[in-house]
TrEMBL record:
One of its GO terms (biological process) is fatty acid biosynthetic process. Its EC number is 2.3.1.180. This is Beta-ketoacyl-[acyl-carrier-protein] synthase III. Belongs to the thiolase-like superfamily. FabH family. Pathway: Lipid metabolism; fatty acid biosynthesis. It is found in: Cytoplasm. Residues 111-188 form the Beta-ketoacyl-[acyl-carrier-protein] synthase III N-terminal domain. The lineage of its organism: Bacteria, Bacillati, Cyanobacteriota, Cyanophyceae, Nostocales.
Length: 333
């Protein structure tokens, strides 16, 4: 039953899951001309997790979701909506419904949301609108990607960057609104900077009709342009989200950025004048897990006791599209 009202939201639980298989930088030297020092100095990455059979996006997303639901103190039967932010579904028609089935969230509507590395932040804002209007009370937001499926392991510019994982949070209707401000942006004129593009070939049905069939190219990226874009645009969008929240940089307790590259994280923090002790980073252990990176880092920090109830968190996702966005929220009810 829908109950329309203008209420608030709270993020009440988190969870995460990563594959068991770990690929260290040193092992990549057997595939391409590189070194642990070269990778670590340019990216901050030391290792990443890889999903091997029988791992699937659905299994990782389900495991992360079960943790988040338990942490929120509810059951899967309480979930009204499941949003799965991913660019790498098990099924091109979508994977959210499979996760719904695995969880036993029988009353939840479920669908995929694709915004690449911005997916979790875009999903957070999307989920909040359903709650704020009173349509749903309990929303499960998942960020999950298996990018290793789409990496060219002979391209040393990209194969060192990506890893696999999943993170999830539960958002619930709340008397006070804990999503304090946000700002979302897109720029399709720079779409060619980062792609996982369709690789078309032609099949003749009749002499007059040739249809397109094919697979996908591996990930391609202009690293310099993406770095330049992120370092410029992310501080701007965080500033705008802070303005919407009527807060200043000094009010931020934790900065949780998309874990793409430690140099980007450091550069953004420096531009915003956020001290190092407020930065949450786990890129060294997992690499770039796309839509999973923010909730994965968030969950680790919560479970380690760093992030506590009422802490103010600034988060930003950025990547393919090009798309980017920021959200300011308080942790817990």
């Amino acid at each position: 039953m829908q109950n329309f009202f203008n209420g608030g939201i709270a993020i009440t639980g988190s969870g995460s899951a990563v594959p068991a298989t770990c690929l260290h930088n040193q092992e990549l030297t057997q595939l391409v001309e590189t070194s642990d020092e070269w990778i670590a100095s340019r990216t901050g990455i030391r290792q990443r997790r890889l999903a091997l059979p029988p791992d699937s996006l659905a299994s990782l997303a389900t495991a992360a979701s079960q943790q988040a639901i338990a942490a929120a103190g509810i059951t899967a039967a309480d979930i009204d909506l499941i949003l799965l932010a991913t660019s790498t579904p098990d099924d091109l028609f979508g994977t959210a419904c499979r996760v719904q089935g695995e969880l036993g969230a029988t009353k939840a509507v479920a669908f995929d949301l694709t915004a690449a590395c911005s997916g979790f932040v875009f999903g957070l804002v999307t989920a909040a609108q359903y709650i704020r209007t009173g349509v749903y009370q309990n929303v499960l937001l998942i960020g999950a990607d298996i990018l290793s499926r789409w990496v060219d392991w002979q391209d040393r510019r990209s194969c060192v960057l990506f890893g696999d994982g999943a993170g999830a949070v539960v958002l619930q209707a709340n008397k006070s609104d804990r999503l304090l401000g946000f700002c979302l942006k897109s720029d399709g004129s720079q779409n060619n900077c980062l792609n996982l593009a369709y690789n078309a070939s032609s099949t003749e049905l009749t002499p007059e009709i040739h249809v397109s069939t094919g697979k996908y190219h591996p990930i391609t990226m202009n690293g310099k342009e993406v770095y330049r874009f992120a370092v410029q645009r992310v501080p701007e969008v965080i500033d705008k989200a802070l303005f919407a929240a009527n807060l200043k940089v000094e009010n931020i307790d934790w900065l949780v950025l998309h874990q793409a590259n430690q140099r980007i994280i450091n550069a953004v923090a420096e531009r915003l004048e956020i001290p190092e002790h407020k930065i949450i980073s786990n890129v060294a252990d997992y690499g770039n897990t796309s839509a999973a990176s923010i909730p994965l880092a968030l969950d680790e920090a919560v479970r380690a006791g760093k992030i506590k109830p009422n802490d103010i968190i600034a988060t930003s996702g950025f990547g393919a599209g090009l798309s980017w966005g920021a959200a300011i929220f308080q942790w817990g009810r």
